[in-house]
Design brief:
alpha+beta; 460 residues; 5-stranded antiparallel β-sheet; disordered C terminus
């Protein structure tokens, strides 16, 4: 589209320039010719008074020499011989016109222009007192006829070229103004089709493209909202099912020995596996959503407070001490709220699942200039192989694990340019650090490597 506009503008401008410049150039050429011969007529007319008074050669020589053309040797006076007199015709100056042309002008008698070598000659008839016709010849060189024409053509050519370049530049800018929004819209649609749900289009450009951008952004927001609602539903189901199952599993463990107790525990384990399969299928079937753009994301402090209110009830039942820090003020992060909720629930669920009752745990939020760090620590036995636990889906084959816990956490961190690390906590157990980048850089790269000692137990 851009080059099409440029080509159309170029063609139209060239036609306009040719349509106006060529006739104007011809008019200028004609004006230069008229100016040259008008000047010659004035100089020829200046000899008229002298010829009407006398035909004396000496006086006429002085009259001719007093004119500009005569001084330059471009004027001649042709006086015929007197009738009935045996005198000779008088020729003053250097004549260039042919005798036939002179006779034609005498016979007419009217001014005439004839071609001569090196230019043209103006033949002006003047009546003498004797009744005869004298002819004043003024030579007009070719250079004087075309004087200033070349300069005028150069100026016209320059103006025409400037108009063409200007029109092409304007058409190119207009084309860019139209094409770039269309290209951005196409790229955003392509990204949205690939599952990059954070793709948005700036609402700028021509009115039609602005309307298309507004419609696209509205559609993308609706898609993200629908997927977020589905993820909220999946997360809510996991909360509703996992927590009662955890309590049921703990209660089943206290039933003692016996066939009924064994059957109850086996049924609880089977139910947990079925729930894990449902949760795994639901989460793996959903595309990743990322919050992008100014104002997108959520308040990490608010999400931590909400989830800790949920998990604190179960912690109280199991006699676990809970500590929360760093949530006294808002902490904005570029992560969608459902994503952070799922990540926190995965880590806190691991604490309850893989540490004994009464084990203390804590959640800390640290807000930095270019990153936010969320620490989930416990006083449990630790993780024996942190590298294996961080491997994608590695723990999925173990009983009681969906293999998605740390995968969910890592996906949230990596979507912002951050990462996840497992180390030794100040409580004596495991510490999981989630580095959430605020500007797209790898906020946790190279940081926090010291003190990450290996624990004793692997989790999902």
């Amino acid at each position: 589209m851009r080059w099409a506009l440029v080509k159309v503008s170029l063609a139209v401008t060239v036609m306009v320039v040719v349509a106006f410049a060529v006739p104007l150039g011809l008019v200028i050429k004609e004006m230069a010719r008229d100016r040259a011969f008008s000047n010659a007529e004035r100089q020829a007319a200046a000899i008229g008074p002298s010829l009407s008074i006398t035909t004396d050669r000496a006086q006429l020589d002085r009259a001719v020499a007093s004119t500009q053309a005569g001084a330059a040797g471009r004027m001649a006076v042709h006086i015929p011989a007197a009738e009935g007199d045996g005198g000779r015709a008088l020729e003053i100056g250097t004549g260039r016109a042919a005798a036939q042309d002179l006779e034609t002008v005498r016979a007419t008698p009217r001014a005439s222009i004839t071609d001569v070598e090196g230019g043209s000659a103006l033949l002006q008839p003047i009546a003498l007192s004797s009744g005869q016709i004298a002819i004043v010849e003024v030579f007009v060189p070719e250079g004087e006829v075309s004087n200033g024409v070349a300069t005028a053509w150069l100026v016209l050519s320059g103006v025409g070229a400037a108009l063409i370049v200007g029109s092409v530049a304007v058409a190119d800018r207009l084309g860019v103004r139209m094409v770039r929004p269309a290209q951005r819209l196409a790229r955003a649609a392509h990204d949205l089709g690939e599952g990059k749900l954070g793709a948005r289009v700036p609402e700028e450009g021509p009115p039609e493209l602005r309307s298309a951008a507004v419609a696209f952004n509205s559609m993308a927001d609706q898609v993200v909202q629908l997927l977020a609602n589905e993820r909220e539903l999946a997360a809510d189901l996991s909360h509703r099912l996992r927590t009662p199952l955890t309590v049921l599993r703990l209660n089943a463990a206290s039933l003692g020995e016996g066939l009924a107790a064994d059957q109850t525990r086996a049924a609880v384990e089977q139910l947990e596996r079925e729930v894990d399969t449902i949760i795994r299928t639901a989460r793996e079937a959903k595309p990743q959503t990322q919050a992008t753009g100014p104002g997108a994301g959520c308040d990490a402090s608010e999400v931590v407070r909400e989830r800790m209110d949920f998990w604190s009830a179960l912690a109280e039942d199991e006699g676990r001490k809970v500590r929360v820090a760093g949530i006294d003020r808002p902490v904005r992060i570029p992560v969608a709220r459902p994503e952070l909720v799922a990540a926190l629930d995965a880590l806190l669920g691991n604490v309850f699942r893989h540490t004994p009752e009464g084990t203390a745990f804590s959640v800390d939020v640290h807000n930095g200039d270019d990153a936010v760090i969320v620490l989930v620590s416990d006083a449990g036995p630790g993780i024996a192989d942190p590298a294996a636990a961080l491997a994608r889906g590695n723990s999925g084959a173990r009983d009681g694990s969906t293999g998605l816990g740390l995968d969910i956490v890592r996906r949230v961190a990596e979507s912002t340019g951050g990462d996840v690390r497992i180390g030794h906590s100040v409580l004596g157990g495991t510490e999981v650090r989630i580095w959430i980048g605020l500007d797209g850089r790898r906020a946790g790269a190279g940081a926090g490597r010291r003190g990450h000692r290996v624990g004793r137990r692997k989790r999902s």
